[in-house]
Amino acid sequence: MPTRSSVLDARALARTLARMATEILERADGTERLVLVGIQRRGVELAGRLKRLIDEAEGTNLALGKLDITLYRDDLQSIGPRPVVGETSLPDLDGKTVVIVDDVLYTGRTVRAALDECADFGRPRRILLCVLIDRGGRELPIQADIVGTALTAGPADRVDVLVSELDQRDGVELVRGS
Amino acid sequence: MASAPALGKDLIGLEQLGAEQIRLILDTAEPFKEVSERPIKKVPALRGKTIVNLFFEASTRTRISFEFAEKRLSADTVNVATAASSVSKGETLVDTARNLEAMRIDMVVIRHGASGAAQFLGQRIRSNVINAGDGKHEHPTQALLDMLTLRDRFKRLEGLKVAICGDILHSRVARSNIWGLTRLGAEVGVCGPATLLPRNVQELGVTILPRIEDAIQWADALNVLRLQLERMQAGFLPSLREYNRVFGVTNERLARAPKDLLVLHPGPINRGVEIDSDVADGPHSVILPQVTNGVAVRMAVLYLLAGGSPDWAQSSGGGD
Fold first, then answer.
1. What CA–CA distance (Å, rounded) separates A20 from A23?
2. How far is the CA of B2 from the CAs of B6, B212, B310, B314, in angstroms?
3. Residue B309 to residue A82, Cβ atoms within 8 A
4. Which residues in chain B are contacts of A106 at CB distance < 8 A?
5. In the prediction, which pLDDT does B88 show?
6. For A134-177, what is each residue's pLDDT tens digit?
7. pTM for this structure?
8. Is the pLDDT reported for residue B314 higher than 80?
């Protein structure tokens, strides 16, 4: 029987994002040449919120991109059903500090694909990885630079990131044994 | 998890597909349009797949379009043109296919003069088979790109009135369009000389429009078919000039349309026969957007048949 517990409620999520926005500015040495790229789907919403937080604090208008990595996956054959391919639209990445934003970091395969895809669009000066939840369980040597919350979840568990744009409410929930 | 309307092993025709499957192909084609606009026009989705383009009939546009689609998905491709192959030495279709399969290919794109050739091949080899036109039967990817172009402009296909004009009898493009459009709720009319309309064509659920003026009055879009010049020798038509005078799509005729008509043509165009140059190059024409969409639709079909079957359930960020 799966059990659902809250990891972050709406207010905790807002605080976490505010801290992540500050950390992005610290790690990227300010906003110059800074580009945020969200991974479809919820990474796009999170990147949009981080952009608003940074723009409000710094009076900037950061470049924002979205990336769908479906066509760069390594499991077209083996794992079967994937969602319909989403939109990719990226600003100029050459010489930029690119912050890839995703909701959950698990095996690292999505990030591997995102790095490959970014390389086909240009040559960033630097790429940082920013995730809301690091749930452990890596299958590739990939680590995040900026982490909202780290937790330990097994293969049978699921982390649900909810954003009001898509899910009518904000929050992060852990579903054990689903 | 909702069940995915997968396409199965082969794409033989639109007759066998349901509305959900056709919509799936059109929706999957949308993001592929953007891939062709990238600085590096390539994604690794079909890396390591081997695809043979087996063309028993002359084709430039369709073959090049498939080839671009394959290359932009990173597949390895081989073109077999029959004039230079063992087919001209009398090898049968089955032997050709078995030899290709013995070389461990993953997909075959086939064009053949005989109706049913693609299905025949698909039943005999394990590789995925895509029909790029078989005799008078079907040309599914052409109809899909026509439908994508119509959907781009009208934002819907339901209730849309599409008149297919010309040689309906010999046209696999017409047949695939009729199946696909009616399945998605569009209304289809056919317009052409009585000698070039199939008998009892109404049974496919289409309206007969005897004169081109009727088609122009009735339709939201005209899909003007290429008039194959060899039909004249076979006695279906008295002369090309007469065909142009009676059935040619001209700006004068379009000016009398009650609404702004969209004009499609699968190409290659016979300028001054079925369509005048100033229509083909004019504001009504979407002939070049059709060509652009052709690559995206073929990428979608290749991707879906290769195993990229989607599911409708929203993944809610389990992450990986």
1. 5
2. 12, 45, 10, 10
3. yes
4. 318-320
5. 60
6. 999 999 999 999 999 999 999 999 999 999 999 999 999 999 98
7. 0.86
8. no
Q: Extract the tokens encoding B115.
A: 């109706």
In the predicted model, what is the mean pLDDT of residues B222-240? Answer: 85
> Tokens 């568990």 belong to which residue?
A157
Please write down the long-range contacts of A16-19, taking CB distance under 8 Å and 24 or more positions apart: A16/A132, A16/A148, A16/A149, A17/A46, A17/A49, A17/A50, A17/A53, A17/A132, A17/A148, A18/A53, A19/A148
Burial of A15 (0-12, 13-18, 19+ CB in 10 A): exposed
Nearest to B320 among A70, A107, A117 (CB): A107
Which pLDDT value is given to residue B5?
Answer: 53
**B12 — phi, psi (to 5°)?**
-95, -45
Burial group, residue B249, by CB count within 10 angstroms (0-12, 13-18, 19+): buried
Which class for B293: exposed (0-12), middle (13-18), buried (19 or more C-beta within 10 A)? buried
Residue whose entry in the numeric block shows the structure tokens 């997909």: B107
Answer left, alpha or beta for residue B80, where phi above 0 means left and psi between -120 and 50 means alpha: beta
Q: What is the count of residue pairs from A and B with beta carbons less than 8 Å apart?
A: 99
Of the partner residues A41, A85, A131, the one whose CB lies closest to the CB of residue B31 = A85
> d(Cα B68, Cα B126) in Å, to the nearest integer?
24
DSSP annotation of A83 reads: P
How confident is the model at residue B315, as a pLDDT?
38
Which band of pLDDT confidence, cut at 50, 70 and 90, is reported for residue A178?
A: low
Supply the Cα-derived Rg of chain B in whole angstroms. Answer: 20
Residues of A in contact with B316 (CB under 8 A): 42, 160-162, 167
Between chains, do A82 and B308 touch, taking CB under 8 Å as contact? yes
How sure is the predictor about B3, in pLDDT bands with cuts at 50, 70 and 90? very low
Chain B interface includes A72 (CB < 8 A):
yes
Considering only CB atoms, A85 lies closest to which of B28, B306, B313, namely B28
Q: Which of A46-50, A76-80, B3-7 has the highest mean pLDDT?
A: A46-50
From A68, A85, A135, residue closest to B319, measured CB to CB: A135
Is some CB atom of chain A closer than 8 A to the CB atom of B311?
Answer: yes
How large a percentage of chain B has pLDDT more than 70? Answer: 92
- Chain A residue with the nearest C-alpha to that of B43: A71
Residues A24/A128, Cβ–Cβ less than 8 Å: yes
